[in-house]
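During the reporting period, our protein records have gained a structure token line. One record among many is quoted in full directly below:
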Amino acid sequence: MTDNTATKNAPRNISRVGSVQIANERAVYRRAERAERATDIVMTPEQLHKRNLKVALARRSQPRSSLALRTPVDVARTVIATQSDSAPSVLDRLDRTRRLEAILSESTGTYDELKPVFGTDLTTATEQIEVARQELRLIAGTDTDRLDAARTVAEGLSAVAAADTRALISGVQALDTALREGADDIISEGALFDKAARKIRETDGAAWTDAYGHIERVAVAGISTLGTPVLDFLDALSVSAGVDVSLYLRAGTGPRIRERLDSRVGVSAGRDSSSPSNTQWDIQTPTCPVTELPAATRHEECRAVAALVDGLLTSGNTARDIALVARDADEYERPLTRAMSVYGRHLSVWSQLELKRTLPYRLAVTTCELLDTLGEGTVDIDQLFRPLTVHWTPPSGSIDTPLSAADLSALRRQLADGEARSVASWLEHIREKSGDTTAPIRHLVAFLNWCQNQPTRPDSEDVSGVLTPLIDAFDRNVLPSVVSNDGPDYTDVSRTARAVERVAGKTDGDHLIRETGAKYDDWLEQGSVSPSWGGVRDVLDALATVRPGRREHKNAERIDVLDATDTWLRSYLYVIALGLVDGVWPQRTHGAFPAEFRAAVVAGDAPPARRLGVRGAWTEDREYDHFADMVRTASDHLVVTRFREDVDGVSYQRSPLLDTLDPTLLGDDARRRLCSESGGVPAPLPGAAPESDSHVGDRQ
């Protein structure tokens, strides 16, 4: 099936995507009421936004049976499935990049125009080319008028930028067509929205009625980017299906999205771009006092934050009253954890799982690598021991304790002679070298016998049949020792338990090994991998780069540490925002298209540029979205912190985002007293004695 929507769209009737509010997503609450069935769909881009909205309504004790909370992808899938009696299959990023690589390698010379941008070997730049393809679809979709507008913008650039932009538009458009023609599945989420919009228009809205006849209104909330495929889908809902569509946009990106709506859908609705009256610079004005706390280094910044948290807790606040927020919580997890340990306080870090660094994942990968090498012949003692160093234990039998580092070291001294051997040869070597059958020797022999019994050319069922029992044995035999050896905050336990669940969990959505088996089967059929444990390892590695959604540690009475993007619709009495330095928050803009082209599209100074969407990473406005969400999360007091230099002595400047606030500055003397043994909450925070220098300090 070919899903080719690259056709010129005729001008449409006036768009009814007309109700647009900025930084007023709490107005969605008014749609929530008790009902026999949902009358409204609220679409949010991520599951975390859906979760936050649920929590917000629950805290208000507000019924929400009138609301169906969905992602836009879920809604588009349902529309298509209703028309075709089956859910559409969409290629994921891994399959797209594989197919792009195959197209590039098989079409020698066809895409040479991309070589000045990406280099002579295009197959090594497949990931960057896929980013460029996604960017073009986001800003222009498949509509030829919009693509022509992108080319017109390129003509106004300098010679080099214009040439690179023209090459990117032409090259990635051709690649997109080749992807569509060679795929039985829908190639991307953008193509999914294209198809859903086309179904709605072709049936004059019947496709929507068949799927969601009971829905009267659709609200879109929490977005920082309104891609062209999504906008076309919403336009089809409003024009062809007669659905009332409302947008609840965010503080930084919202004004630009609102101002370009009519230009992007090709109508002139006479929209009043000044309504509603709120503007970017007063939306985030905090309703509570704001204190700025600078420090020399990130270490001192975290130490001051830990002292402040301790003071707030000591003065009668609870952990549920306080949230720590960073642009990237992962960067602050370790220094904050160390700083908090001084005060005996513990954190609950809401962050993504760095799966590849965890023991369960490394156990699966090293086992695959060993089985693959054994299938080819022999292994040396270093590779033989790798699964054992990450706590391999037999899936069944009486051995239920992993080998210790001391045991492995003793075995290495006893058996190492520089030779590589097959499994049978290693078993013979052990019999010759070991004078007795100690527990470590029995463990090693059990491991070798297990290796000998595994298939050398695994099929998709072997992936789960071999690897899942190993992770189950890890859960049973190793995780208890992690619990006993962990600190009071149980950081290692939380991370390791999450990794076990991610690698071999009990639910369909959280099982990397099951996902690997399915993807391995697909790639075997396509000829993308050979039937081997090396092929399984490649699939494992590729899927592990797709980091799962954020999940909190389920530990009570701990201080929440959040990414800024996760503060949407949240509320805490005290919010402490870390890392407010230029280059960290906000981060620098980036994209696959030339910077000059990106700047022209973002500026929108000419009608062709206003026809195009803007990717969030092309502008700092998305950073402002997260900043404004964080500011509005604090109800009683907001503290913003920053450091002046990193461990290498590189200086960092104060974040320009802070210029939108009017904080009271705590000087270095006040910070040092905060971190002293006397501690306490410094002025001007509630309950503190006045500090004589609380307004003194530099704002470099």
In short: The radius of gyration is 29 Å. The longest strand covers residues 634-645. The chain is about 50% helix and 10% strand. Confidence is low (pLDDT under 50) at residues 1-15, 269-283, 547-556, 689-700.
